[in-house]
Amino acid sequence: MLRSKLLRGAGWRARVTPVLAVVAALALAGCDNLIDVQNPNNVNEENVNDPVSALAIASGILSEVQDAWEESLTPYSTATDELKWVGSRDSWTQLERGDLGDPINEFTDAAFPDVGEARWLADEGIKILEGFDPADYDPINLAQAYLYGGVLYMSIADRWDDFVISSSKQEAGPPVGEANMASLYDTAVAYFTSGLAIAVSEGNTELQTRFLALRAVARHRQAVWNVVQPSFTGPAPVYVSLPAAAIQDANDALALIGPADWQFGFVYSAQTRTNTMAFWVNERLEHRVDDRYGVPDGSDKTVNATALLDPIDGTPDPELDQIIFDELTCCGDESPLRITSVHELYLILAEDAIATSADVNDPAAVGFINSLRALNGLTPFNALTHAPLTAADHVQHHRQASLFVHGVRLSDMYRFGITDTRWVAGSQALTSPGVFLPITTIECNANPNISC
Asked: Residue range 254-258: average pLDDT?
């Protein structure tokens, strides 16, 4: 498997040139609702155009997307109120203080080529798989490639101000342009749509659920992007509505999920791909869960309890508690990370109902909120008895708790009028709400189409 950290500094196009020669072949064994991968092997470059390589190509895409997901999530979450810097590497301070736009920040600059590499491999791998005769390989491999490719495109649009989507591994391409970044959600939706067709034809209900949920989520995030980009002018809070197709997708996914507390994300392991974000939090102790979310222990390096309380029951939010202690901090650098869940589906439907009706206690929104609360055994919300709390307040709370370290918090902070106490006066997060991560110096130095 290509170890990108060993090649960093040469410009991502130089690094991805040989990537298909060393794609990891990892068995796509499902671990309930989380992606799991096992049994790494290699496939030679001369064999990538042979259908026998289909599993290896799809698995290599997964491996690179996993890496890109957590590599970019760490600087992103540091710039939000989710993670607190408690270590010694000063470049984290710059992000924590709200200055996101520096192209030479070492951690943003380290993440950019990993994301670029994964993007190239996903697109190239999908093209190869699409060229195979469906009779010669398992089409689920192509469906998985669409899944990971769509997830990656969605995350790029969520986290970056601009990016380079080049069709060539040897020639530098122009940037997408900040005003055009929403088009990456369109690519994600197109990939999810293509993958869904395969999942339906193969009768794979779990894959159908993932594609439907992610397509609804991508369209919601695109609607949020349209509010906060290129800059958020307010007034806050802003709740967004969904297109009818996204509502249908969310409802269809919920019908497949049923009463289950469904989630979908990445599993990491020493045998496949470890989680760098979890390494920074659990082993390097460079970050910890922020005070808004967790109670620090005496060392101030870790947390030992959940601080964010449910607004009705007054107890630690159980979904956040699970994300912190059963996922993010549970397993050293092998801790899993979520991509989405049934909680996000209920939240985007509740938000749509509020935005469409202009009623902060829209009855449909209350119903969705209570379906979410029932998953954790929480007291149902009643607009009369729990006033002045509103369903809109619950959307904000449960997005903060249930979508912790999902890579959406910065957009939510901008549109809900939330600031981090560590953002300093004059920082970009305060003066230019809507700012995200920039194209960084490693791309600037390698790409004549860009000037930082």
From this structure: 98
Residues 179-208, mean pLDDT to the nearest whole number: 98
CB–CB of 20/45 below 8 Å? yes
Rounded to an integer, what is the distance from CA 322 to the centroid of its chain?
A: 18
Q: Report the pLDDT averaged over residues 402-412.
A: 98
Contact predicate 64/16, CB 8 Å: no
* Averaged confidence pLDDT in the chain: 90
Residues 6+ apart with CB under 8 A from 163: 115, 116, 119, 156, 175, 176, 181, 184, 439
Residue from 385, 354, 386 nearest 367 by CA: 354
295 bridge partner residues: 305
Rounded distance, CA 97 to CA 401, Å?
A: 22
The pLDDT of 309-331, averaged and rounded, is 98
Question: What is the bridge-based pairing of β-strands 263-266 and 337-341?
Answer: antiparallel
257 φ, ψ to 5°?
A: -70, -40
Please say whether the dihedral angle defined by the alpha carbons of residues 320, 325, 329 and 331, taken in this order, is positive or negative. negative
Asked whether 394 and 369 are in contact (CB, 8 A), the reply is yes
Asked if pLDDT for residue 228 goes beyond 50, the answer is: yes
The tokens describing 125, both together, are 């791998």
DSSP class of residue 379 equals P
Alpha carbon distance 11, 443 (integer Å):
6
Amino acid at 104: I
- Count the Cβ atoms, other than its own, within 10 Å of residue 235: 7
Residue 401 dihedral angles phi and psi, to the nearest 5°: -85, -50
Task: Look up residue 378 and give its DSSP letter.
Answer: P
pTM: predicted TM-score of the whole model, two decimal places: 0.91
Res. 10: pLDDT tops 50: no
Long-range contacts of 248-255 (CB under 8 A, 24+ apart): 249/212, 249/213, 249/215, 249/216, 249/219, 250/212, 250/213, 250/216, 250/345, 250/348, 250/349, 251/349, 252/212, 253/209, 253/212, 253/213, 253/216, 253/345, 254/342, 254/345, 254/346
Q: What's the token pair of residue 104?
A: 């030479």
Least confident interval from 50-59, 246-255, 346-355, 383-392: 50-59
Question: Does residue 19 register a pLDDT over 80?
Answer: no
